[in-house]
Design a protein that fits this description.
Blueprint (H helix, E strand, L loop, with lengths): L1 E5 L5 E7 L5 E6 L10 H4 L7 E7 L15 H14 L5 E6 L1 H12 L5 E7 L18 H13 L1 H9 L9 H12 L3 H13 L3 H6 L5 E6 L8 H9 L3 E6 L6 H4 L1 H13 L1
Helix pairs in contact: 2-3, 4-5, 4-7, 5-6
């Protein structure tokens, strides 16, 4: 089923609701600059196991509205709450990948884990995607400035450069082309605004400490976008958390290590 859900500031959010009668609900938040379609190979599997899978296109991305403003983590987290309230969801397993992981963490803090029973952070951009004086494990800020500048001047080139970072193993050219197309479905201004959010956002360090539900952290040691020390910081900050280290898979674990990724999620949900 497809839905358009209005947020509190009047933005339409696209939602794909697969197997609405499933016994357990997984709510997927995609990373930058993709959309819900990135989880295709989870949507093909989990509903056959009687899970309900809900994929959201964050504002500015995919089929959702593309306003010029509203790309800070507070607003993005509030959008998630609008979806949960409108669909009357309960006991949700919240899964966030990359920037989607940061949105999920902000949601847990800002809304006190409202309606969420378990949390999954996959290659999450938390607590900071970029290096800071007190956190030297992220990407250089110059790399983000380069992403922003290239987006202004040659967005397909920027997306291709990012595409070269997300896998640590061979994938077909067709798959690379498809991921590039998903990135081009986003608005350029939303793409830039999220990158600016990475630079300015520092509250996630405190947000992590407020999470008190079972949390699964999935992260590859070969992730070139969200480096592995981010996962260690997540594990240290979240009391009731489990870290599963992937030797392979790169940043896109759900493709690069698809079977292990799916299996770890099922084990966590059924525990």
């Amino acid at each position: 089923m497809e839905h358009y859900i209005y947020t509190s500031d009047g933005v339409k959010i696209y939602v794909q609701d697969i197997n609405p009668m499933g016994s357990k609900t997984i709510l997927f938040i995609h990373g930058w600059p993709g959309n819900h379609k990135l989880f295709e190979y989870q949507f093909n599997k989990f509903p056959t196991m009687n899970y309900r899978c809900i994929g959201i296109d964050c504002r500015g991305f995919g089929k959702s509205d593309k306003p010029f403003f509203g790309y800070d983590y507070n607003r993005l987290a509030d959008d998630i709450k609008c979806v949960i309230d409108t669909l009357e969801l309960n006991d949700v397993i919240l899964l966030g990948h990359s920037t989607g992981g940061a949105i999920a963490v902000r949601y847990m803090s800002r809304h006190n884990g409202y309606k969420i029973s378990k949390l999954i952070l996959a290659a999450a951009a938390v607590p900071s995607l970029v290096k800071r004086s007190y956190f030297p494990y992220g990407l250089p800020k110059e790399a983000v400035y380069d992403i922003i500048n290239t987006t202004y001047n040659d967005r397909p080139k920027m997306l291709k450069n990012i595409g070269n970072m997300i896998f640590d193993n061979y994938v077909t050219q067709e798959l690379n082309d498809w991921i590039l197309e998903l990135g081009l479905e986003a608005s350029s201004w939303g793409t830039i605004a999220i990158a600016n959010t990475w630079l300015g956002e520092e509250q996630l360090f405190d947000d992590l400490k407020k999470i008190n539900i079972p949390t699964l952290i999935l992260h590859s040691v070969k992730d070139k976008v969200c480096l592995f020390p981010l996962a260690l910081a997540q594990k240290e900050a979240i009391k009731n958390s489990k870290l599963v280290k992937f030797e392979n898979g790169g940043h896109f674990l759900f493709y690069g290590a698809q079977d292990k990724f799916n299996d770890e999620i099922v084990k966590f949900i059924e525990k």
